[in-house]
Amino acid sequence: MKRSIGPSTCLAPLPAVIVTCGDGSENNAITLAWVGTVNSEPPMLTIAVRYSRYSLPLIERTGEFTVNLVDRALLRATDICGVTSGRDCDKFERAGITRAKGEKVSCPSVAESPVSIECKVRSRVDLGTHAVFFGEVVNVIAAEEYLKNGKLSVPEGRLVAYANGKYVGTGEALGTYGFTAREKRQ
Ligand SMILES: Cc1cc2nc3c(=O)[nH]c(=O)nc-3n(C[C@H](O)[C@H](O)[C@H](O)COP(=O)(O)O)c2cc1C
């Protein structure tokens, strides 16, 4: 039995990521869950940033950001970057994460993150509480153990997701894309 509970932002699970932004003069790390993949060619993703965030004007000023995927080892850092503001502290120091120089963007990435996705802002849509940035992926930097034949191959159970106020682990693979189409018809 299901029942109606009215409208809310209840999509789950969501990726939990640390977005890095800014440049050499001023940079920051912010945890986001409202992140989505929205286009293949060019590869594009969105991030939704509340107007009050210190990170927002940094993204706006440089027109760049990096989405850093988080594994279980980065769980505490992810939470710290989500409950402290770059207005008050150096979050890299506070969270115990290291700045790595961006390759195709001026903002740093998180050295400890297994996958860093460098993006350039192509457009911005302003909604009631959040600005949504559409970022074109200009480079992906991945750890060796996340690669197979030069392509991204995320190991099972390592990445962290976010669902309804809780950080949740990803588990074992339950199937692969199109597995039903490959099944032998009786
Ligand atoms: C798990 C998690 C997910 C979050 N997702 C978002 C999000 O999608 N958008 C957003 O604006 N803030 C989100 N936040 C809140 C910001 O990370 C938080 O307000 C942070 O302190 C802002 O940092 P800043 O002021 O340095 O930019 C999230 C926080 C957590 C812990």
List the helices and strands and how they pair.
Blueprint: E1 14-15, E2 17-22, E3 27-32, E4 35-39, E5 44-50, H1 55-62, E6 64-69, H2 75-83, H3 91-95, E7 99-100, E8 109-110, E9 115-126, E10 130-142, E11 147-148, E12 151-152, E13 160-163, E14 166-169, H4 179-182
Antiparallel strand pairs: 1-13, 2-3, 2-6, 4-5, 5-10, 6-9, 7-8, 9-10, 11-12, 13-14
The chain binds flavin mononucleotide.
State the helix count: 4
Mean pLDDT rating:
97
- Order of the strands making up the biggest sheet: 3-2-6-9-10-5-4
Q: Assign the structural class, choosing from mainly alpha, mainly beta, alpha/beta, alpha+beta, or little secondary structure.
A: mainly beta
Low-confidence stretches: none
Strand tally, please? 14
List the ligand species.
flavin mononucleotide
Largest sheet: 7 strands, antiparallel
The top-level CATH class is Mainly Beta
Strand residue percentage: 35-45%
Measured distance between first and last alpha carbons: 34 Å
Find the CATH topology.
Answer: Pnp Oxidase, Chain A
CATH level-four homologous superfamily name: Electron Transport, Fmn-binding Protein, Chain A
Order of helices and strands: EEEEEHEHHEEEEEEEEH
**What is the radius of gyration?**
17 Å
- Estimate nothing, just give the exact number of structural domains: 1
